[in-house]
Design goal:
Helix content: 55-70%
Order of helices and strands: EEHHHHHEEHHHHHHHHHHHEH
Strand content: under 5%
Shape: flat
Family: Belongs to the FPP/GGPP synthase family.
Structural class: mainly alpha
Cofactor: Mg(2+)
Radius of gyration: 22 Å
Number of domains: 1
Distance between the termini: 6 Å
CATH architecture: Orthogonal Bundle
InterPro entries: Isoprenoid_synthase_dom_sf (IPR008949), Polyprenyl_synt (IPR000092), Polyprenyl_synt_CS (IPR033749)
Number of helices: 17
Pfam family, one: polyprenyl_synt
Number of strands: 5
CATH superfamily: Farnesyl Diphosphate Synthase
Keywords: Magnesium, Metal-binding, Transferase
């Protein structure tokens, strides 16, 4: 799913009219995801080109770092940058004051995309993934480079070590770019706190994910753990927190942040629940990942937890033996997939997605200037912005990749 495919809201023009409201600022139209993605991508590219030149100045051998990061950060969905940008607009609204700040917003949004890239690089190492976005994962690229250049020692350990270090560098660059944005946007204590919370939560969520993969399937907290991982590793960091960070940068107070959280968290949960479905049932041509990949990786997702409730003792034993086995045959994976369907696990997750998606849209309707009865929310949006948010939520909840 490209940035255009995901949110697809129509117009790519940047004219946004806003009008004051007794409750806040009414935003009639949000910047298009396509225009946001283009601006943020260009900013990331320019920033990484500068960093690549710095790496090269240190050593010709360090040129690999900059080239790898430039290539890795191209082609992402740009979900988090779009949401940060929209959060800023929902809070600030006023075009005349906002236009001069867009460079800073683009840098803040770009910093989130670099944080995401760092997390993906490390996630692929942890999961022993071979591919990312249909291409070799970064550690596999450096593993191949080791062989091609006839280096000494093991190719695989070199690839893993290189990816860990480059992921760390990417994380540091994310912080640098966020600090750069503050020179334009100004130092906002609440934004700094939200940025720190986002970074903390995704890292804690990653640990919880690693832990969940080694806990027995009959553990009493398997479902609770699955929801913790879903919320902290992805739902908050992918949707809710980018919106909140952007809103804080736009001057939102605690009341408005709470309103935006009511939209962002359930939508983030729907987004990750869909990701869990795609990790097993997705089309490899669309996802860039092998079919049933989450089974081979041993992911203890909400889908797995819901399915386990209704498996027979024999099926539970089979699932316990196969979940996390990277050498499963396609037929063994297919049998596990059938269990997830027949047990009602897939239906349960689809029901969760619909519920979370509906919860998010109910908040969007509250924000609408056409709401009846008239809402007292601080966040106010016109019909066009309402359609944009609705379409974006639909894309996140029911996407194919």
């Amino acid at each position: 799913m490209t940035p255009a495919d995901a949110p697809g809201t129509g117009s790519t023009e940047t004219a946004r009219s806003t009008e004051p409201s007794q409750h806040g600022t009414t935003v009639s139209e949000l910047d298009s995801p396509e225009s946001i993605a283009a601006e943020v991508s260009a900013g990331i590219e320019a920033f990484l080109e500068l960093k690549a030149a710095e790496f090269l100045a240190i050593s010709p051998d360090a040129d690999d770092i900059g080239r790898a990061l430039l290539e890795f950060t191209r082609g992402g969905k740009m979900i988090r940058p779009v949401l940060l940008w929209w959060g800023f607009q929902l809070a600030s609204g006023d075009d005349s004051s906002r236009s001069a700040l867009n460079g800073g917003v683009a840098e803040a949004a770009g910093s989130l995309e670099l944080l995401h890239a760092a997390a993906l690089i490390h996630d692929d190492v942890i999961d022993h993934s071979d591919t990312r976005r249909g291409k070799p994962a970064l550690h596999r690229q450096f593993e191949s480079r080791h062989s091609e250049r006839r280096f000494q020692g093991g190719a695989e350990p070199f690839g893993v070590a290189a990816a860990i270090v480059i992921g760390d560098i990417c994380l540091a660059l994310s912080e640098e770019l966020f600090e750069k944005s503050q020179s334009v946007l100004g130092i906002t204590p609440s934004a700094r706190d939200l940025r720190a919370t986002l970074r903390r939560d995704v890292m804690v969520g990653q640990y919880l994910d690693v832990l969940a993969e080694v806990v027995p399937l009959d553990d009493a907290r398997i479902g609770e753990r699955a929801w913790e991982v879903l919320s902290f590793k992805s739902a908050k960091y992918s949707v809710e927190q980018p919106l909140l960070l952007g809103a804080a940068l736009g001057g939102a107070d605690e009341e408005q942040l709470a309103e935006i959280s009511r939209f962002g968290l359930p939508l983030g949960q729907a987004f990750q629940l869909r990701d869990d479905v795609l990790g097993i049932f997705g089309d490899p041509a669309a996802t860039g990942k092998p079919a049933g990949d989450d089974i081979r990786e041993g992911k203890r997702t909400v889908l797995i937890a819901e399915s386990m409730k209704n498996l027979s003792s024999e099926q539970t034993q089979i699932m316990a033996e196969r979940l996390g086995d990277p050498d499963l045959s396609d037929s063994e994976v297919a049998e596990c997939v059938s269990m997830l369907t027949d047990s009602g696990g897939l239906d349960a997750v689809e029901s969760f997605i619909r519920s979370k998606h509906d919860d998010a849209l109910s908040v969007v309707r509250e924000w609408s200037t056409d709401s009846s009865p008239v809402s007292s929310t601080r966040t106010r949006i016109g019909p066009t912005a309402q359609r944009q948010l609705t379409k974006f939520a639909e894309a996140l909840s029911y996407r194919k990749s």
